[in-house]
Amino acid sequence: MLKQRLQQKLLQKLSPQQIQMIKLLEIPAIHLEQRIKKELEENPLLEVGEENEEESNNESEVTEETINEEGDELSLEDYMNAEDIPSYKLSARNYSKSERQAEIPFSIGSTFHDFLENQMGLRVLTEEQKTLAAYVLGNIDEDGYLRRKIENIVDDLGFSQNIVTTEEELQKILRIVQDFDPPGVGARDLQECLLLQIERKDLEIPVIKLARQILKYYFSEFTKKHYEKILTRMNISEEELKEAINEILKLNPKPGSSFSDPLNKTTQHIIPDFILENKDGELELSLNSKNVPELRISRTYSDMLESFQANRNNQTREDKNTVSFVKQKLDSAKWFIDAIKQRQNTLLLTMNAIINFQRKYFIDGDETRLKPMILKNIAEKTNLDISTISRVANSKYIQTHFGIFTLKYFFSEGLQTDSGEEISTREIKKILEECVENEVKRKPLTDEKLANILREKGYLIARRTVAKYREQLGISVARLRKEL
């Protein structure tokens, strides 16, 4: 049974302008230029350039009409019916031979898999073997490893390629692939990868032969750095073990990464969003807007729209649709310009609050002067929402007189010393790095010993917290840091 009733709800929805502002706030400087170019292509009412008084006066004189080269008057109707303009009025062919620019073909280097396939072409193989080898090469990842099991590849060939083969045949193909360069390619695990590389060397040399034996028979003890077990079981001296380990450390655990083509390199460019200068102890902050063009509303379109609206009585339905379209683009252009300005104001407001909070650090760049700071601290100082501060700090960089840093670098949690002073966890991490760097490698410091050292310095910190900070710094446990 259908019933009608009234229901009142309170909903919070973001307007299109707010959504646009949020998206622009997240974009770093390196992507802002492309976003502006895209908007310029989609909206004809947006123009590049800062409007001055002379341009404003000159453009205000031309309202309803524009004069072309032949002296004819072009009205708004001519702009709306642009498809009726002859092509000779829209193009010019008065180029000289010297002005013609020949297109230069773009060349890209070969990839790692292209390099492997080229080597396969140098081997004498049957058509069936070439098909199997190509499928095996297709399963090798960028590190050079064959992660998929042989029996699974046999099933894949049967179902997808309708090729019936055996594991023995694929093993033969794999051995051919493992003979390719770079050494170690086609390995199924790290042990096989290192063995393939060491076997390419002269096994008549005693240290090479010893390194191969360690990798083949004592790989588990080697990875866990149980050197005493290796010394006892192989009955060798500590010096011999050290030389063999040095040979193993020269091997590449990721052979695919050794392939480098200068024509196929990807370089990550960092363009700072802020520039901070220290001028005689005074910090000056500015936005990096070097590649961001100034935007303005097209005076021609806006004047033409005003003049056309003055003649509403003579408008057809097509004219009204055109005017509605131009109005929509005009509002969109105004919103976009306002969003860009609001983005700049929000960025400067947030970054100034961060600099004022960490002023002692920004003077000389000493990490020990970094104060504990979280998003909430900056949100309270700027009267902005925490989510807004998070968007500002995301993927943004600042160029200082002591280096380029991401904004997230300045945020850290706080800890209290035994004297009650609150310090940044970054200071704790720096002390941990120094302790690990200066430790005796034969007997590296355990997490418990590191915690005791910190307590002696006045930092009340538990062992599990030391382990967490050590993992964040990418430092291995004490057993794996051991060296002979």
Q: What would the keywords be for this entry?
A:
single chain, 484 residues, alpha+beta, Arc Repressor Mutant, subunit A, 3 domains, 4-stranded mixed beta sheet, two-stranded antiparallel sheet, 21 helices, 49% helix, extended
Q: Can you describe what's shown?
A:
The protein is of the alpha+beta class. The protein has three domains: 112-258, no CATH class; 274-410, no CATH class; 414-481, Homeodomain-like (Arc Repressor Mutant, subunit A). It is 49% helix and 7% strand. It contains 21 helices and ten strands. Helix 6 (127-138) crosses helix 8, helix 9 runs antiparallel to helix 10 (206-217) and helix 10 (206-217) packs across helix 13.
Task: Give the secondary structure arrangement, pairings included.
Layout: H1 16-26, H2 29-42, E1 46-48, H3 53-61, E2 66-67, E3 73-74, H4 76-80, H5 112-120, H6 127-138, H7 150-161, H8 167-177, H9 190-198, H10 206-217, H11 219-223, H12 227-234, H13 238-249, E4 274-279, E5 282-287, E6 295-297, H14 299-309, H15 317-357, H16 359-364, H17 375-382, H18 386-393, E7 397-400, E8 403-406, E9 414-416, E10 422-424, H19 425-437, H20 447-456, H21 463-472
Parallel strand pairs: 4-7
Antiparallel strand pairs: 1-6, 2-3, 4-5, 7-8, 9-10
Helix pairs in contact: 1-15, 5-6, 6-8, 9-10, 10-13, 14-15, 15-17, 17-18, 20-21
